[in-house]
Every structure is written in C-alpha cells, then in structure tokens.
Amino acid sequence: VTGMSPLSPYLNLDPRYLVQDTDEFILPTGANKTRGRFELAFFTIGGCCMTGAAFGALNGLRLGLKETQNMAWSKPRNVQILNMVTRQGALWANTLGSLALLYSAFGVIIEKTRGAEDDLNTIAAGTLTGMLYKSTGRV
C-alpha cells in the first residue's frame, strides 16, 4: 500500500478502483445519448397544460373574487368563484397545451425534413406556431 492512495478502512480496497469515467447508461442500439425533439414533445405539452391550468386557476380566482366582491360569503358566491376557477383553468390549459402541441409538431416535422438538429428548427417552429395562432384571430 502506498502513502498516496490509502486503503479504505471500510472496504479494505483501494478507492481508485471505484472511480469510473465512462457513462453507466445502457442505450439501445442506434439510440442517442440526448433526447430527441419528439421525446421532449410530451414533456413540453404536459408542462404547458399544467402551467396553463395553474395560471388559469389563479386568474379565475382573481376574477371570481372581483366579480363577487359585493356578495356576502355564502354558498352561491363560493360556487360562482369555483366556476370561474375551473373555467379559466381549463381555458388556459387548453390554450397553452394547443400552442405546445403546434410548436412540438412543427419542430419534429422541420427537424425530420431538414435532417438536422439545431437552433434554426426551434426558431422556425416558434415562428410558424405564432403565425398560425395569430392567423386564427386569437390575441
């Protein structure tokens, strides 16, 4: 045993043998180490739906409290506020989820068409999504 690498008092072996510099992932044949745009699409769409639902619920709570401020705290007021929360939550979840779906679909199509993975695909997908969304008359 050299003075530079003492034995581990617990394992009775040289800790240098435990260090590995290679990745320990087992990848299927032909798989990439990074996730592709198609795999990330599901995370993007789900994340946008949940973000939209949370934002919409908060917005619905704000609107519900504002609209019913002259009412006393009662069951009808609570129901009205709850209706605003659920309506706004669903509306925003649907809107952001639809945008994420469009963005992801454009991104995958552009990537497959060009055969390259770079920032140009992201810019083009975002631009096309914005153009399509604005062309439908939405604000």
UniProtKB/TrEMBL annotation:
Q: Report the locations given in the UniProt record.
A: Mitochondrion inner membrane
Pfam families noted in UniProt: Tim17 (PF02466)
Entry's transmembrane regions: 40-61, 91-110
Keyword list (alphabetical) reads: Membrane, Mitochondrion, Mitochondrion inner membrane, Protein transport, Translocation, Transmembrane, Transmembrane helix, Transport
Q: State the oligomer form and interacting partners.
A: Component of the TIM23 complex, at least composed of TIM23, TIM17, TIM50 and TIM21.
Q: Record's family?
A: Belongs to the Tim17/Tim22/Tim23 family.
Identify the stretch annotated as signal peptide in this record.
none
| Family matches, as InterPro entries | Tim23, Tim23-like
Q: What is the lineage of its organism?
A: Eukaryota, Metazoa, Chordata, Craniata, Vertebrata
- Record carries keyword Mitochondrion: yes
Protein's job = Essential component of the TIM23 complex, a complex that mediates the translocation of transit peptide-containing proteins across the mitochondrial inner membrane.
**Could you identify this protein by its name?**
Mitochondrial import inner membrane translocase subunit TIM23
**Membrane topology recorded in Swiss-Prot or TrEMBL:** Multi-pass membrane protein
- UniProt entry tagged with the keyword Transport: yes
Kindly state one GO CC term assigned in the UniProt record: TIM23 mitochondrial import inner membrane translocase complex
A Gene Ontology molecular function term for this protein is: protein transmembrane transporter activity
One GO BP on record is: protein import into mitochondrial matrix
